[in-house]
Amino acid sequence: MRKSVFLASCAAAITGLACASLARAQDYQLEPGDILDFAIVGAPNFTQKVPVSSDGSIRLPIGGQFRAGGRSIDELRGDVVDKLKTSSYPAGVDAQGNTTWNVVYPEGVILGVAEYRPIYLSGDVLTPGAQSFRFGMTVRQAAAVAGGYSMFRNRQDYTLEAAGSEEEYRGVLTQFAKAQMKAARIQAELDGTQPDFSKVDIAGVDPAMVKQFEALERQQFDSRLADRQKERENIAEGIKNAEARYSYLEQSKRNLENETKNYEEELRRVEELLRKGLTQVARLNDAQRAVFLVATRSLETSAEVARIERELVELKRSLEKVDTQSGMDNLSDLQDTTITVSNLRAQIEKLSRRQQLFAPSLLTGAGNGKPRIAITRREGDRYVQIDGNEDTILQPGDTVEVSLGSADRAAAVAPGEGLAAATMGEPAPAR
């Protein structure tokens, strides 16, 4: 009897704090990830931390395996005590060298929760991640342990971040205006008119840069126009020269044809004289040679005339292609530039929405909105999502997602609202 009282006193002394904590968690159901404290009073070799495995079981240094998942700590301890109450274990060796054995008393079995499954914080907190759980913990307390709410997490200098975003925004606006001017210049080339930059959206762009872009586009317009005109003139000059050569060769061709006829008549006359014996063979040979030479010259001239004709056709075709090819190139450039303008407009919209992150109320934490709390919790074999608040009491294994400024983030921002206006509290220029 005295031994039982002694063991009970020891158990109470060893587990006083644990029992006080467990008194508030009698209904807690053990799950994989929990870690238990196991001990037998008077047997330090059996003292150890025992994790609940993925299949919901635990394995003790004495007694073997037990089912823990889905059960309370009292239910599990009852099973352990029932199995160990008739057990004994070697306690040492007596003076005669014999092994001594101790009996496991129910009062000497200590089993409690050492560590509950951690909770997990994510989203708009300074240091998201796992946290140790304690009963009664609220979302507000868990967020405080995580360093508090923050839309910027580990960013050290919000002013530099805002300045960098403003610089990026200004750069995109500048590229947007430049691309629009290029598109206006190409359209003017296609229409055969002077470029009109009055409809280009230049809000938020340095006026000096606007003038520079406009001057460059006009200069390129004039240069391309002059290049095409010069190309036309060169081709026209080539056509004129080819036509002059063609006219000369045509006249030469007619002259050679007449000469060929004359030499052929002379050859027939010499042949007739030779049959009558009135001339020599040498004269016949000279006449034949003359016919051959003039015929060769006539063929060469005809070939050159044909070549000049082909050259004229190609030159006239090139003259027609100066404008058609330029139009095709301009259409392709206009298509590419239009895509660029569209992409830049989308980028401006994205950066305009991003500017909300650097509005004064968000940088200083002066907003009136409350954080949105979404808790994912395991209930039996399934997970459920719970809409919580800062005072919601957490349970082991909960995953908490914190979102700040959800209403502000959902609000659309006009594509042309400037980042500087948002950060300085001034109205953005209309686009």
User: What value does the average pLDDT take?
Assistant: 80
- Decide which structural class fits the backbone: alpha+beta
The CATH C-level name of the largest domain is Mainly Alpha
Low-confidence stretches: 1-23, 360-368, 406-431
Question: Order of helices and strands, N to C?
Answer: HHEEEEHEEEEEHHHHHEEEHH
Helix content: 40-55%
In order across it, which strands form the biggest sheet? 9-8-12-10-11
Major β-sheet profile = 5 strands, mixed
Number of strands: 12
Tally of separate domains: 3
Keywords: Coiled coil, Signal
Pfam family, one: HH_AprE
Domain Polysaccharide export protein N-terminal: 24-86
Coiled coil: 225-354
